[in-house]
Write a structure and sequence with these properties.
The protein is built from 14 helices and 21 strands. By secondary structure, the protein is an alpha/beta fold.
């Protein structure tokens, strides 16, 4: 494939789904690409996520009315949100920015920005899956949101409005239709929303590992090094400084997920990025296997079929990076999972804690750094990293090649 003049050698910081997707799309353009990550491909956030490739998650975390719910959520020890109180002073600027994004106008704008990416997800996925031979790890059976009460279903009216506004397909199922679609569920749910265009990865960590294997087979380099800084010349980053030395680069791509904040500042892009902690528990596969990613609305947990079992995820926690895990919230969901799935064995096979890169408006940063024209930013995807990784990589490659990415990138600017 033809590429423009420089850059020829690109250093990508981060080997999760976003970083590896960037690396693969840049490599398709004929560029020499080096990926830096101290932990290795797919071993951090990408390893432990729920596996959803969502074509419907257009509702930002900051929504109208959430401010009034926050105190009750924080006081609920089994609730979906936890903040370590000693961390609150550090988190305060993020929370204030979050609250500024709860107006209806901001929610609609942020949801539209998310939707613009979502509608391009599988076009990008199909390219990478075909070229890396990973079709066996992708399932496209749609996803579900299930409601035990009519009240909970009625309370989700704004979400359905946002789906309609952004041309996202959904179907409303009654109890009998749900039973026929997903026989693994116990008959305790009165309503469901079926999102037919969504998919999932049956092993997200292994998907990224195989992306990385394909990248290396085609001549890419992956180094187990931690990026610490940049060396600048004539106002541009010309090398990435790591804990093991430095690597010259014509261009750099910052895709380090929740660890992107300090490096983004060095590239002239200060952002309010937080590491949102998430948990999962792996359970044995039930006799009647769940066929698709399912969100249990009232209890705010998800179950996802995984090639090694059934993955339960729940909750959002804000705490200092490196703080000890608190598994109480995710373990509190085990009885609810058992009462939702036929013949489920709720014994814990493994438990995990990871960090998601989150911004106050739920919209990722994608594009050139406002401070340096050879620095590209690709982070902040929150719960949609697995969903948006490939489309983000495609956009970064388009920008570097001076191709039109096909959408207005203004909502994703670091200085928005």
């Amino acid at each position: 494939m033809n590429i423009g003049p420089q850059p020829n050698h690109v250093v990508v910081i981060g080997a999760g789904i976003v970083g590896m997707s960037c690396a693969l799309f840049l490599q398709r353009d004929g560029r020499q690409v080096t990926v830096l990550d101290p932990a290795g491909p797919g071993t951090e956030t990408s390893f432990g996520n729920a596996g959803s490739i969502s074509m419907s998650s257009v509702l930002p975390t900051a929504v109208p009315g959430v401010a009034w719910k926050l105190p009750g959520m924080l006081l609920d020890r089994a609730g979906p949100l936890a903040i370590r109180w000693r961390y609150l002073p550090h988190l305060a600027p993020f929370l204030l920015a979050f609250l500024r994004n709860t107006s209806r106008a901001r929610v609609e704008a942020n949801g539209g920005a998310i939707a613009a990416l979502i509608h391009r997800v599988f076009d990008a996925y199909d390219i990478l899956v075909r070229e890396t031979g990973t079709a066996d790890l992708i399932v496209r059976r749609g996803s579900l949101k299930v409601y035990r009460s009519e009240q909970a279903f009625a309370a989700a009216a704004f979400e359905r409005e946002m789906l309609t506004r952004n041309d996202c397909k959904y179907e409303i199922l009654d109890a009998d239709e749900l039973r026929q679609l997903e026989p693994a569920l116990k008959p305790i749910f009165k309503r469901a929303m079926y999102l037919p265009e969504s998919g999932s990865a049956t092993n997200p960590g292994r998907l990224v590992e195989r992306f990385a294997e394909s990248f290396v087979e085609k001549g890419g380099r992956i180094l187990r090094e931690a990026a610490r800084d940049f060396r600048f010349a004539e106002g541009r980053p010309v090398a990435v400084v790591t804990d093991a030395g430095e690597h010259a680069a014509d261009a750099v791509v910052l895709a380090a997920g929740p660890w992107s904040g300090a490096l983004a500042r060095r590239l002239g892009a200060p952002v309010r990025l937080e590491a949102e902690r998430g948990y999962h528990i792996m359970l044995p596969k039930p006799p009647v296997e769940l066929q698709r990613f399912t969100l249990f609305v009232e209890r705010k947990f998800t179950l996802a079929p995984h090639e090694d079992g059934l993955r339960l995820t729940t909750g959002v926690e804000f705490a200092k990076v490196g703080a000890p895990p608190d598994y109480r919230r995710v373990r509190a969901m085990l009885p609810h999972a058992a009462e939702s799935i036929r013949d489920l064995d709720p014994r814990e096979r493994s438990i995990w804690l990871g960090n998601r890169p989150t911004l106050p408006d739920s919209v990722p940063v994608i594009g050139r750094s406002p401070g340096h024209d050879n620095a590209y930013l690709a982070f902040g995807h929150s719960h949609l990293g697995l969903t948006m990784g490939p489309v983000t990589g495609r956009i970064i490659a388009d920008l570097m090649a001076d191709r039109d990415p096909g959408l207005d990138l203004t909502p994703y600017r670091a200085d928005r």
